[in-house]
Design a protein that fits this description.
With about 60 residues, this protein is mostly helical. Helices cover about 70% and strands about 0% of the residues.
Length: about 60
């Protein structure tokens, strides 16, 4: 994935912060793995489709 501009990065950070606040206000926590993935998304290292695909794969993985 290519580098994104500062405006897009700020837009992504605002969206991530909003989503995180929503999750935490609902009484849940966001794992460090997801937080790391969100930082990659904000930086433009991965796109939202990759985030969704990865999260779906996590849910399909059997418990350890």
């Amino acid at each position: 994935m290519g580098k994104i501009d500062k405006v897009e990065s700020l837009r992504r950070r605002a969206a991530v912060n909003f989503a995180r606040a929503n999750v935490e206000l609902s009484g849940f926590t966001v794992s460090q793995r997801v937080l790391d993935m969100m930082e990659q998304y904000i930086a433009g290292e991965i796109n939202i489709d990759e985030v969704i695909t990865e999260r779906q794969a996590d849910r399909e993985e059997p418990p350890r």
